Amino acid sequence: MMQASAHQLVYRLWKALEDENFSSTAVQYHMQLLLEAAQVGNVEFLVILIRSYPDLIWQVDNGYGTLFHVAIKHRQEHVFNLIYEIGVLKGNLACVCTKKGNNMLHLAGELPSLDRLNIVSGAALQMQRELLWFQEIEKIVPKSYVNMKNTKGKTPRDIFVKTHEELQKNGEKWMKGTSNSCMLVAALIATVVFPAAFTVPGGNNQETDIPIFLESNWFTVFFISDAVTMLFSSSSILVFLSILTSRYTEKDFLISLPRRLALGLATLLISIIGMLIAFTAACFLVLKSKTSVPIRIIVGAPAVPISLFVILHYGLWLDIFRSAFCSKRFLFRSQNRLFKQAS
């Protein structure tokens, strides 16, 4: 309700300003306010103003450029996405340069502030996000601007490589550390479940050498979950091993490494769940004659570590899977807000 009230307040104040001999010169006096709104990502504020006065899109500040230049510099994707709603005219905005000779691609090559960089977890995912920004702006600016030099004689690629060198190294270090830790867990799981397939609960019949609980449904659950755990833990080890042996080029950070990490974590989670299901099935087989409350609690205990694993790693999982499979769709897309009729 406070957000809706704030929007109504901005709308009415802007209308009152228009009634007081509003002209293009008035816009220039409020340019700093608009730039600050773009810097912090207050897209709702900008939408209200641009709907009332569309010429705000074309206003240029000598030091900062347009609103979209500020959005790129501070990685405010919600503000930048407004550029997709003005059609082919966005090419004119892409030709604007700041007083230092920086075009949009130069700004995309610079490293943003830490608060904008840390909106995703892990240096590797941050590097991927920066690459996505640079590639997207590269599609918008004229081709001659890709290798254009600013007043310091730097091209956008020169700036990107220089400013992101440390981030790329940290991304490689973070990816290897995460892979090593997860691969260790997967190896421990594989070590546990492999002998469990041959030392089944209840043992074997001494005369026939057939498992005693072979006909039990819980024995089937135990054996299948044990086999699934072995399969997925082994797969997880191989996936994380492929991450450790990667070349760690820019292209690897863009698609390959995030998807490998997502696949490795998914197979690791499945192997953990399978191991706990196998434990539960073994408890039912051995203690099926026991119906006391403590036994039931022990049998249901595996739900606790599964829940903890999901809850404690929810944020990291969300960042990894979104970066691996739908990061570009989440970052750059038209939201049809600018010229949509206000409710």
Automatic annotation (TrEMBL):
GO CC annotations, alphabetized: membrane
UniProt keyword annotations, A-Z: Membrane, Transmembrane, Transmembrane helix
Domain PGG span(s) in chain numbering: 172-285
Pfam family, one: PGG
Record bears the keyword DNA damage: no
Signal peptide: none
Bilayer-crossing regions: 178-198, 218-241, 261-287, 293-318
InterPro entries cross-referenced by the UniProt entry: PGG_dom (IPR026961)
Highest taxon of source: Eukaryota
PANTHER family registered for this protein in UniProt: ANKYRIN REPEAT FAMILY PROTEIN-RELATED, CASKIN
Identification of the protein by name: PGG domain-containing protein
Taxonomic placement: Eukaryota, Viridiplantae, Streptophyta, Embryophyta, Tracheophyta
